[in-house]
Amino acid sequence: MADQEYDYVIVGAGSAGCTVAARLAEHTDDSVLVMEAGGSDRSPMLSIPLAWGLVFRHRLFDWGYDTEPERELNGRRIECARGRVVGGSSSVNGMVYARGIPADYDAWAEQFGLTGWAFQDVLPYFIKSEHWPVANAPWRGNAGPLSLTQLHDPDPLVQSFVEACAQAGFGQTDDYNGPQSEGFGPIQATIHKGRRSSAARAYLRNAPRAGGVALRTGVVVTRIVLEAGRATGIEFLDKNRLRRVHARKEVILSAGVFNSPKLLMLSGIGPADELRRHRIDVNVDLPGVGDNLQDHLACEVRWRRRDQGVLHRAMRIDRAAMSMARAFFCGKGVASSMPLGAIGLLRTVPGLPHPDAQLLLGTAPLSAAPYLNPFVRPYLDAFTIKGMVVQPESRGRVGLRSADPLASPQIEQRLMSAPRDIEVARSVIRVIREIANQPGMQRHIAEEVAPGPSVDTDSAVLAYLRSTASTLHHPVGTCRMGRSEERNAVLDSDMRVFGVQQLRVIDASSMPRIVRGPVNAPVIMMAEKIAHEMLIRSRQR
Known about the structure:
The protein is α/β, with parallel strands linked by helices. It has helices at about 15-25, 45, 50-55, 100-110, 120-130, 155-165, 200, 260-265, 270-275, 310-315, 315-330, 370, 420-435, 440, 460-470, 520-540, and strands spanning about 5-10, 30-35, 130, 145, 150, 185, 190, 190, 195, 215, 220-225, 230-240, 240-255, 270, 285, 295-305, 340-345, 355-360, 380-390, 395-400, 410, 445-450, 470, 505.
């Protein structure tokens, strides 16, 4: 591939990279090359929804990144699972589909000066991306490439949970991605006919290939080539040989929240002091590269069931094998869905202007090792309510471990470093228990197994959080959009890197602030929006 040229070179075939590549090729004659370090997403393990547990537990199709020891979490290293495969994290995530709330995007426009990013501006791109099965639903799209399903877990625990939420004073919603985002209701997932609907399946596989999109897998990009302040291509390793490809129009980084800042820094774009420390020539001093790392803090309460769960009955080894085969070939059965019952945004304290927490009901012990390998019996028949701090104040960073492009980045999430996050997390545990104590839930509960009824004081709950709290795998913000005069802004509102022409970063790292929910849907929306605006400008030239 030495000296080959494309109009656009995209680094990373994740949610954003797949979306941008497909949209550019769909509407222009421009050539697009997508470079992906991982391999194909054709494995059945990535197609069958219930196989997610095995993929996650064994860190298959994953970069294998962990944080540095987290001081506020008893020095634990927290795993940072990110997809290293075509489709990126959309090929390995838990498939929950959520946009956040309108106020999240209005804050991008008002607080960060990002004209064109208020909710009324981004809603059309959510609609454009979606294939929602309900016709004429307000705020929803039903002609987009990303197929969605509303999960209907047959477990009677689900309806009991929603009723208990109402008994505890929390509302309900039939569509949390519609006008009523707050309250509890059925989960929406990127699943279509019992198979995972990743960005690769939705966008890249349908992109024109002849003269349109070329996909190269198994290659590691080492740096962006800069000439006279312009990004003119990339260098990459192909079977241990260093090679180069040129971009006539633009280089687009969609390598993810950890690898996009790493590649910028390897290319001499980032905090000057850090670059010099690793003996990298400084091309553009951008202190914000790698800064502003945010993620949702996750905690949970788990109970042993009084009645037998639906998934537990299905997990005898012969039944499990049949379930997996049925899901793969027919798109039906218990393995064609996820043991996720309901989700909801709430305010842990009355009077808050917006929700500060989200709860997720798992009808199996979601984070327990037996669920992650459920085909080995016996395992505890239990269920989990997982809580999430949706607007964390804690901030971490991503730095270089060395100038070696094959070295993993240095990740410091600094979860629970902000006192407010600790306060909200303790409130989340309190609210979860309050819901579980309602009459409808009690008939399903034999005993609380984690943290256990003895953990009932503020200090005991805090100790439990420090020993068990983790990420919900929604990291964002390390190359954030903002005003050029802001010290830690990296991109303008069109996701162009300050100080470099023909270079953009389009992925979760571009977000200035995390949204209230999983981030895959917002990333696809962002890619749709920027691709559309790139096409408009291309036609005007």
